[in-house]
């Protein structure tokens, strides 16, 4: 159960820092008494208390507050709903963070109240599930799920029900996200068989279903593609040097036009950068990264949308801090 102190902290952060302006409906149970998070608030997860919990902080790294508190679980992959009143995230048993085979999908109000499980592990016979992303109108959730060896892309309603399968491709299909208008999905998948993680490429397809279009042709491991808020660009994660760091790889963040043209590196500095997340105004990108020569812990960072101004947001923490989202 949540401690009263963490609830008070989350409430205080929301009241003190939130702009109290929201977007559209989140499509689930209304939460009219919940103050929306301001545009300057990030959500992320951290193991600073031992297990991974969900936290909020300002986008300059200050004033963090804990939202979830249950030492029986790892809580990870948090996403803010379009109306900025709820958080979507995954849970798995303690000691099994980012285990898609053990993951259950949850939602909680941003003040820590209303904790609700949407999808238990194994729902609909799925062996794995992950990468849940709210649709721009909050009425649906895109995710991957199904077979452990060949997961596919699905869309559910806002409560995680009635999954509609969009892909039926060989190999792995994961890392789905929405365009700002909700009409298009990005995902990563295999260009052929056999399928190896070293050659995942980025694809796009209509959210209503239809043919996919391949966007990347770099024959590297490409993950976590996201449209910019204005829909003109995409940013994604690329393993630029798979042999680095004893096989963990050196990972960079790439940027291209929405059709995949004119790809450039935003950051490729030999370290392990991970999962880009755009700021609401499109001016910044948040991500977590590890500098193995400094510390083998993840930290939350920001940089400009042009790749300049790298800034550590959790530099005072000795814990893992990851999966930031605005």
TrEMBL record:
Keywords: Signal. This is Uncharacterized protein. Residues 1-18 form the signal peptide. InterPro entries: 6-blade_b-propeller_TolB-like, WD40. PANTHER family: PROTEIN TOLB (PTHR36842:SF1), PROTEIN TOLB HOMOLOG (PTHR36842). It comes from the Bacteria. The keyword Chloroplast does not apply. Belongs to the TolB family. The lineage of its organism: Bacteria, Pseudomonadati, Pseudomonadota, Betaproteobacteria, Burkholderiales.
